[in-house]
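TL;DR need structure tokens for one chain.
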Amino acid sequence: QVQLVESGGGLVQAGGSLRLSCAASGRTFSNSDMGWFRQAPGKERDFVAAISPSGRSTAYASSVKDRFTISRDSAKNTVYLQMNSLKPEDTAVYYCNKNPPIRAFWGQGTQVTVSS
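>> reply
TL;DR here they are.
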């Protein structure tokens, strides 16, 4: 059974930082593009960032570019999202998945709340 488990969320003040982790089990994702997505209250789930299997190619939503950094450790089957200069509008539940996402792989996500 494939599981993607997100962790590292929390409550932080505006301008602060958090590092999210996504640990995969049940299969390896080392050959897959992986992504982070987020869903704010009352809104649809949106793309945040993606990374290629090698880690050499990344992509970001314009709203997070230059503040967030996606990375991966294929040996650990884990993907990370370093979030700096956080803003209240970054408040959301953050999820990881393949990119493009597979419906069956959505996990519980991790809540990020940024206070002003």
